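Can you give me the bound-state structure? Components:
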Amino acid sequence: MKLTGVLTVVPLLHLSASVYSQQVTLKGQRVKIKDALRTVTKQTGYGFLYNSKMLDVESSISVDLNNAPLSKAMEEILAAKGFNYRIEENTIVLLPRHERIIETKETLVQKGIRGKVTDDKGKPLTGVSIVFNKDLSFTTDAKGEFNLPVSVDGKEATFSFVGYKKHVQVLTVKSGTYEIKLQSSHEQLSDVVVTGYFSRTKQSVTGSQVVVSGEDLRKVGSLNLMQALNAFDPSVRMAPNLEFGSDPNRVPEITIRGENGFDLRSNADDSRSNPNGPLYLLDGIEVSATRIYDLDMNRIESFVILRDASATSLYGSRGANGVILITTIPPKEGAVRVSFNATSNVSVPDLRDYNLMNAREKLEYERLARLYTSRTNSREEQILLDLKYSDRLAEVERGVDTYWLSKPLTTSVNQRYNAFVEGGDRSFRYGVNLNYDKDKGVMKESGRDRYGINVSFNYYPRKDFLIRNDVSVNNVKGFNSPYGTFDTYAKQNPIDRIYDRQTGDVIRFYEFNSTLNPMLDAFLPNKDFNRYTEIQDNFNMDWRINPNFRVTGRASLSKKLSKAEKYISPFSSKFDRETETDKKGSYEIYDQDDLNFDGTVTASYNKIFMDKITTNIGVGANAVTTSAVGEGYTATGFLSDNMNFIQYAQQFKENTSPRGYFDKSKMIGFFLNANVGYENRYFVDLSFRTDGSSRFGRESRFAPFWSAGVAWNADREKWWNSDATLKVRASVGSTGSVNFSADQALTKYGYDPLYEYNGYYGARLLGYGNPALKWQNTLQNNIGADLTMFKNLLVLNIDAYIKQTQNLLLPIDIAPSTGFLSYTENLGSMENRGMDMRLRFNVLRGKNPVNWNFTLGAATNKNKIKHLSNALEAMNEEAGKKDNVTGPKPLRTYQAGRSQSALMVVESLGIDPMTGNEIYRKLNGDLTFDYDPKDKIIVGDMNPTWMGTFQSNLLYKGFNLYFILAYEYGGKIYNSTLAQKVEGSNPLFNADRRVLYERWKNPGDIALYKRIDDTEPPYQTTRLVQRNDFLRLQTLTLTYDLPTNVLKNLKLERARIMLTSNDLFRFSTVKMERGTIYPYAQTFSLALNLTF
Amino acid sequence: MNKQFILMKLKLVLLLGALFFLSACNKWLDVELADKVTQEKLFSTPQGYQEALAGVYSQMADSSLYGKKLTMEVMDLMGDYYGTNNVAARYAKLRAYDYKDAGSQVIIAKIWNQLYSAIGGANNIIAWADKDVSVLSPDMKNQILGEAYALRAYLHCDLIRMFCPDVVASPKASGIPYNLVFGVSLPPIYTVEENVQLVIDDLKAAEKYLANDPITKVKPYEMVNKNEADKYVARFNLYGVKALLARVSLMRGDKNNAIKYAKEVVESQRFRLLDFASVDKSEKEIDMLFSDEHIFSLRNKKLSDFTTEIHYSHTDDKGTTTFAFLPFANLAQLYEANNDDIRYIKWFSTTDGSFIKYKVDNKDKFFPKMPMIKLSEMYLILAECYLGKDDQQAQSYINQLRDHRIRNNAHWSYLTMEYIMRESQREFLGEGQLWYAMKRWIQGMPNIIFVFPMPLKEIETGNRN
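Here's the bound-state model for the whole set.
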């Protein structure tokens, strides 16, 4: 919202009025008020002062004045607009008619209550309403001053002005002259908070939520919305991602306030969607996490994070994991305005966590690992091994030291552009948004291209009726690097050359460790990409039947076409052993087609009773249908890379048949919300929603969700006499989550095309569908407080919660004699307790040229499993299997009473100096060399006990320096680099330097890591568990806004230059390789925003 | 006041509207999935019932059950067809009747799970056919119910034969769960005697339902088109029920009933013993499996793949060649090197001796099938039951059978149990019936050979002790 320009002063002419005539001549059918006033100024010399928000000067009138007196002219011009006027010296002040005009020359005035209203920068505000009750209101004059009759002595006045926060104060005669400052509501976005379906005043909100403007969001300078969320709400956590680093095709996973359900996905690559992810609503329509990831951040007007039941219960079955509401920028009225954003960023691979051996060190490691010592003590063999060693040594002496890590990497330069054109008048506004974003990533030839268009219009056929339509088309294409995964390069030996010494050809095969050169495939025209095109139309209607009653309708239809293709050349090393040409080369295609509909109707009613009781009641219904159809196949048999189109395939891949995917679901919900307030001090908020879903059993298809909240604005109490404000909130309620497949409640049959039986395909049972399956249900309790003190110097928001998730869907193992091995039952329960807070110091504010604030955000969460099923206990057994206890990552083990992210390993006493083997402690305290998974103990939690951010914002003139430090404290991690690259490393491949320097070599060595010639992967023990505390500079941003006078010369409305760097540094207690499959990157970006 | 009243009314209307809506929504919320079908939809047409039945048959035909495991693989291994030498290492433990071995336990557990899973399929058909009268005509309903009951009995019967001690020797011993209800409630365990009785109850019910089975009106063996004949015999028909009743009666030592049911089958004239002419044909036309004798069989187009997997040496992707996992042993001794015995010279290749019973390319005429109960078993049952009671009769039945197996057969004028056992051994090769018969014959053998232990998962999750 632009605040400057609210007051428009038509140029004053400081000339005596007598020079001009007092007569006005003006004629016309469709004269704009603006032009009419200009004419009056020309003819009479009077300037005008008015609030452009209230008086629409673009609207037209018809006038017929011929030498009419000024008073008559003004009456005629303002007649239809409901405005009065007052002449003060050379200026005519225009005011809404219902506000009584204070006659300055009134005798009583001298004794009245006087004061001045200004904005926070001290600029006088004209036309501010001073309301005592419905029948008694006043406004400030051109100088922002007021002079009220003594009859209002001791009464409470409400000062209000569009774009500013309301100010309530008791006025007395004795107090002398008032200096009243109205706070711009810009900072708080607005007094009105959209809770999704209904709008509520900020005071009446009882739930825990965070509201962020798009402006603040863009300051974080992150590449997507998800990365920025933790800057505004410390309880938002992005799942740690050691494997996929900064892969542009990897959608990050976030959770709000801990994990409410079991995450039973077996590995990071599991494509199932995050069961604990929040619900995303873009302009009120549910969208996928991918859509948010690909959303152009320049389109975001604001977003809200809803955390507790009172805030989320209107989303019923989908609200348990938190809700993120995102609103896009609506077009504003006025002449055509163009905003243009250009960002150019540089991504640099971040390899600081890698500490690999060079060629000489590697050779020494090979020698120490006894690669060149005959194990059979045979002399012939020893001679051969000695020769092999000297060959390799010669290579090292020749200076071969291949730095494999850099081979698949590149520093990428990326471009992002966004243009927004908007304009229109009161009744019709339009906006067109174009965006283009090419994000190339740091692995060569990987990347994600996004481009899209959005066209929207707002149309008011009548003043009380709005039609809005919004069409977007987005196209996203993600490429995976042909270089394969990064860990292959991290493993390559630095002693190995890429190109042959003599011929200069790429070496195909390394005999030393019988592996293929990973670079081979990189030179082939392999393709691996997935893309989607999404077309969405949102249609909104908003009818304000009367000031109290409002009906809205919203419908959205979206269609998404996705395609994934993967071509592997017949010359790929993958087919080296394949002899038949019709099996060489492969082409995999998968297409999917999604169609979603989302419709909502709401009606709301609000009224103030007896001037004290505010009521807001809303009801609504919401229906969502989704359907997805996919098909795919793999073909083989390509003879040449020139014919890498699917039609040249010779056959379907052997023993495969076309794949298919089908999913369809429907959901319908009815909801009701009532918010009642008393004197703006006490508020009660009740919500109810019932949801029905096709995913649930017939016996419990509908489930109720509810919430009750109270809020107390303590600063509104009579006895409260300080400038501090305090609001206390509490809420309780239940919400649900449905992040699982449709199969569990229905007993279904599938056809097996292999067995035709006497003319019938056999329909086989696909498992038992539990018809009694209920919704997962999370009971949430929240208490919170919002406090500002010392004239806004300190702002504190604090919330504490207990969330109990019940009826968690879990597989339960049953006796096979029932005919089934397991089925799904509402069995599990889990608890999350935690706290989140934000403390903000506005250290330097106001008129100072320097403006400085800093914010500390902190969140803590504790998870506890209350009840689980026998099937999960079977998973614990799985976690104890040898492959799993020697792997790089301990699997989750589940036990009631513990956190689901508890880290369980066997206790270790370190390395025996005599043997170089590890000593374990059994549960009974005995020491042993034999590992037993039953001896596992809890060593901590994989999730941090505290996490959050520290931010600072420093403004000086047009400059703004902003940084965010993010931290996590108290989590534990099993160091996978130590487990794989220091111990468990294969001497045939490269590994971490610590292999050479810190492993046990001779009896008596006190070493951290076991015998250097032991190549077995180590068992997971406490020895390799480390604290996972870190502090990173998430964002460092410097922005500069061009000053107004420069802008005027350039004919610009706004210009801003922004320099950002992400992840500039990171201090961590763990020395571990991060981004193993795709490396991390640091980004530096330069952005330019222009509005003209 | 009036305004508020209107508001109240409005709210009431909205609420009532919502309530009405809720019930309408319930219907709206039923979605149909293209790749799967809900049971409600499946059982809304007669075809659906047929498909569900076909589902149980196809499940039984799978390699994990009668396609391979319960016939030519595990059961014939236990029935000692493969001797002790040359059996691949992966079968060594099972061959040694070491059921405690982890590998054996996996195999046994899988058999248990699959059989009960198929029973679940049959139970759901029974549940739906019982409650639904409008979809199926009375005739169809009887047919469906009859087949489903018979399948439930057949599957339980084999579970009893595998997991229970011999019913005659230890009738009161704890048996297996008999699952009569579709769902996830735990079926109770019965004694062996009760288990067998439950099988008989189910079969008697099936017999009633199938009284008007279409097979009573035709003679399948007269049909030239064998696919047409399969419509009567490649599913549970009335005579399949009777034959199974004969099998179960003999199992529990009720020879009178065994004779009664076996005779009913033999005298029904619906099946006939092998006609030599039908095997004296080229590979394309040979009736290798003696299809005119099939009372109940399972069509299975993958049989030749299954037999290849275990009976033939084969080469894997990496080019490594492995020998046949399960080579037959002592064939000449078994068939007394009798080149007139059709089984000896037709089921095995005359050129290289390989097992070709399930691997001839005759599918244009004969769809590959796994026999589940054959007419020959009825003759063997009759011989066994009459032996010691009316030896003349016993000899007559076994000679009739041998007349259709051995060219220029010289009749036996002397018969002992040993002879019958030998004949059965020759007859059941590749069909998985011998181990069960041995269990009956060799009374007093330790249970550890003839009783599979109940799978651990069943004991743990079902609280079975």
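A couple of observations. The beta strands of chain B are 37-38, 174-177, 189-191, 294-299, 314-315, 321-322, 369-374. Chain B touches chain A through 70 residues (CB under 8 Å).
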